[in-house]
Amino acid sequence: MTQHLLAPITLRDLTVRNRIWVPPMCQYAAAGLDGIATDYHLMHYGSFARGGAGAVILEATGVLPEGRISPQDLGLWDGAQREALRPVVDLLHSFGAAAGIQLAHAGRKASTEPEWGTAHPGASLTAADGGWETVGPSAIAYDALTAPTALDEAGIDEVVAAFAASAVRAVDAGFDLLEVHAAHGYLLHEFLSPLSNHRTDSYGGDLAGRARLLLRVVDAVRAAIPEGMPLLVRISATEWVEGGFDLAQATEVVTWLGEHGVDMVDVSSGGNAAGARIPVGPGYQTPLAAHLRERTEMPVSAVGMLDTPFQAEHVLATGQADVVRVGRAFLRAPNWGIDAALSLRGDNEIIPPPYRRAFRQQL
Ligand code: FNR
């Protein structure tokens, strides 16, 4: 049997050992509210690398303090944060995985209480509880969150510069690939969407205007990182609501991303319209990835309830995506990659040598 899942993939100068990638998942576990990674992050991310992931993409990491979802988010706006991430990168490398990081600005969904251990999970933080003023394309609130202030031209320039500066720190810390977060209703997605972007300047209006900030960020990051380093973007390919950002618009944006030097798009959905009815189920976002892969030249990764090795293998074998990302299933079973290698009967190097003897008859 051909094992697509276990086949390496090359993007620019980076070859990743397989197509089982762990997507970014916020842990809200930074030390001292300063965006600093800790032993928790070493253990958490290291376990996925040891468990066979080809690439591990670290969680949404704020490029600016006000771009964090919560005060407990990781950040990469200073050198101390960069140094705290270096051992995480080294650990991933020591287990053979590529290290990625998702650079993020939460826009109008910033300054919220973490989803656990707080009085009002996910609600806007008050100033007394350490909250801050949020920004967005327009002064339109997301659901019951506090309304943001519309970014002015100088604020937009600052966001672009912050993404580029964080990218430089990520390169310095040793990351192999970078991902720009333009999904799930955070700042760059908010600009893309006609629901949240009512601007009348050159950053609003038609799709080209709404995509302008994302393309500026991509250009700035691309220019700041080595030519051989892959740059990824995560998008919400549809908002699942009438009149929102949809697959037709996403197809155009992905084409532009390719022209601006993006190497792969991760295809997620939703997050910018509170009332959206999302048809959640096994592989529910994969058709979006397949559509974009077919209509554009862009390599894509598929994500969303691709929980079993055979299901993930099928997505790749049928040409719906180039890479599969496995999130919550890796939280449940951090040796998901080893299990996949055994299930697919792939005598693969991701099975640690001390385990090989135990599994010999299954290989
Ligand atoms: C997420 N997700 C997410 N997405 C993202 O782009 N940046 C992030 O930081 C996070 N944070 C996050 C935390 C946790 C605890 C979960 C469960 C999810 C979404 C995630 O990357 C993925 O797209 C979804 O979980 C769907 O994939 P699975 O879990 O069904 O494989």
TrEMBL record:
> What are the alphabetically sorted keywords of the record?
Flavoprotein, FMN, NADP, Oxidoreductase
Q: Does the keyword Oxidoreductase apply?
A: yes
Task: List, for all copies, the residue spans of the domain called NADH:flavin oxidoreductase/NADH oxidase N-terminal.
Answer: 5-337
Which cofactors is this protein said to need?
A: FMN
**Gene Ontology molecular function terms on file:** FMN binding; NADP binding; NADPH dehydrogenase activity
- Give a single Pfam family match: Oxidored_FMN
- Specify the species: Brachybacterium saurashtrense
> What protein name applies here?
NADH:flavin oxidoreductase/NADH oxidase
- Which InterPro entries is this protein grouped with? Aldolase_TIM, OxRdtase_FMN_N, YqjM-like
CDD domains per record: OYE_YqiM_FMN (cd02932)
PANTHER family from the entry?
A: NADPH DEHYDROGENASE C23G7.10C-RELATED
